[in-house]
Design a protein that fits this description.
508 residues; alpha/beta; Nucleotidyltransferase, domain 5; Hypothetical protein af1432; 3 domains; 6-stranded mixed β-sheet; elongated
Length: 508
């Protein structure tokens, strides 16, 4: 059966990129091809804002190389959109005509609002922030949005980007102190022209290649244990320190920085100055990276146009539904294990063995719903596969620490394996948190054994605490002997952590 594929071509001021999306068995679209060309169209804008013939030819040649790829794949549709460099060109109608006549593509120029709106759509459909300020710095423009309760409130497009800032303020490959001072003063003046930025105390969410490079540079610098940058976060101090470190280098050294694309070496400092300035004005504590951007926003709009609902109601639920489909998880069984886990932790809370927050209940729901998904690969070593799959897959809506936490709970086998898996993330969790999540992991394993035959027979769980013993009363609607055998095998993990003997009584 032929797979359903769509393509988007994003003609930016710095790069032109072709992305092909393929529908998987869950119905979710994911990138299957991603081709990039560094065209720097912004540099071909003349003094009177026309895209030169040389620049138009660079665009045409790049699109012709892309059409060799798009002709190879059987695509349902191709969207070709252009941003600031073409939008700012006074000869844009002639450019559109040339593209239509000389290539397979029909080019659409996005308005400032559309460019900002698509970035906002990408963020709210792939991250869990309810409110925030997004910044998408391209080569020739910078888009800002403010969203609250996941609704777009304000947007603005500035007619400057990393390339134009470099051209305007920095003469050589790296800036002098006087050039940096002038750049910073200019940025602050520009951003303060908006009355909805200063002192907002919201996270700053970066979109685009320069933001991605900043996250990659920091990850390499601190020897970060996870792969992937989507939803990666940096503190304001870390952004500032990275900026100073980059600014202290000679250009040859800058080009060799791990995580930095060589073609961005000359524009990374102006871009990070934008992030730094905005964080200070917003009084933002967190810089978060969204790997999803304009292209994904265009795609979300296209894929949801029939539903009149471009914003997903719940990003995390959407992600975990995709996981369940991808790894053939029995959803009825998963819901039953989750319900049993929640009944047990509530009983333990009543008896004073656990103190849980509402967030903790969310982790219990997610960890228990994904428990043992590694059986999809191999039942014998399912715990190890479960941890690896969840820890190394981008899960929209979960920050990296949260993803590791869910992986620790969903892969729980015993105290030693939990500790071994957590070791790579030393400093991410406090001792108190690890102790609490160790108990929760053992509870989920216990709850999983209560549905060993996947018959969903448990209806209620009660707990009585005696001096040296915990007595579980499990109400079932069918014969429980297979579950009883599994529970007797697995209860030792909970006994060790709670330091109490456990007796389990089953009854109808």
């Amino acid at each position: 059966m032929e797979q359903e594929k769509y393509a988007i071509i994003d003609i930016g001021s710095n790069t032109i990129r072709l992305v092909i999306y393929t529908r998987d068995k869950s119905g979710r679209f994911s990138e299957s091809e991603n081709v990039k060309a560094v065209a720097r169209l912004r540099n071909y804008l003349t003094d009177d804002n026309a895209l030169s013939e040389e620049g138009i030819q660079v665009l045409i040649d790049t699109l012709k190389s892309f059409q060799e790829v798009t002709r190879h794949h059987q695509l349902e549709a191709i969207k070709c959109v252009a941003t600031a460099a073409v939008r700012q060109a006074k000869n844009q109608e002639a450019i559109i005509q040339r593209v239509g006549e000389e290539t397979d593509f029909t080019m659409r120029i996005l308005s400032e609002y559309e460019e900002a709106h698509y970035g906002y759509l990408a963020v709210v459909n792939s991250m869990s922030y309810k409110s925030g300020i997004t910044v998408d710095i391209g080569g020739g423009s910078t888009e800002l949005t403010l969203f609250e309760d996941r609704e777009l409130i304000h947007f603005h497009s500035f007619p400057f980007g990393a390339l134009s800032l470099k051209k305007q303020f920095i003469e050589g490959d790296t800036p002098k102190n006087s050039e940096l001072k002038a750049l910073r003063e200019y940025l602050e003046q520009q951003f303060l022209s908006l009355d909805w930025i200063e002192g907002k105390k919201l996270p700053l969410i970066g979109i685009g290649g320069s933001a991605r490079n900043l996250a990659q540079i920091h990850q390499e610098k601190i020897d970060y244990p996870l792969s992937g940058v989507h939803q990666y976060t940096m503190k304001r101090k870390e952004v500032d320190e990275t900026n100073e470190w980059l600014g202290s280098m000679e250009f040859d050294d800058l080009q060799r920085v791990e995580g930095l694309s060589r073609d961005r070496a000359d524009i990374i400092i102006p871009a990070v100055e934008v992030f730094n300035c905005l964080m200070a004005l917003i009084d933002a504590e967190i810089f978060a990276l969204s790997r999803k951007g304009l292209r994904d926003g265009v795609f979300y709009e296209e894929m949801t146009k029939d539903f009149e609902m471009p914003v997903f109601p719940n990003v995390i639920e959407e992600s975990f539904y995709d996981l369940a489909i991808d790894y053939d998880i029995n959803l009825t069984h998963a819901i039953h294990v989750t319900n049993s886990s929640l009944m047990i932790v509530r009983e333990l809370q009543k008896q004073g063995f656990l103190a849980l927050t509402e967030k903790d209940h969310q982790w219990i729901r997610l960890g228990s719903s994904m428990y043992n998904l590694g059986t999809y690969i191999d039942s014998e070593s399912s715990n190890q596969h479960t941890f690896y799959l969840l820890a190394n897959r981008t899960i929209d809506g979960l920050l990296h620490k949260e993803r590791i936490l869910v992986a620790l709970l969903a892969s729980y086998k015993n105290k030693n394996l939990f500790k071994r898996n957590a070791t790579s993330y030393e400093g991410w969790f406090t001792e108190e948190e690890l102790e609490k999540f160790n108990i929760i992991g053992a509870v989920i394993k216990f709850a999983y054994s209560l549905n060993a035959t996947k018959r969903d027979i448990v209806e209620d769980i009660q707990l009585e605490s005696q001096k040296e013993e915990l007595i579980f009363s499990i109400q079932c609607r069918e014969d429980w002997k297979p579950e009883q055998y599994q529970v007797e095998k697995q209860k030792k993990h909970l006994e060790k952590l709670l330091k109490k003997a456990i007796t389990v009584h089953f009854h109808e």
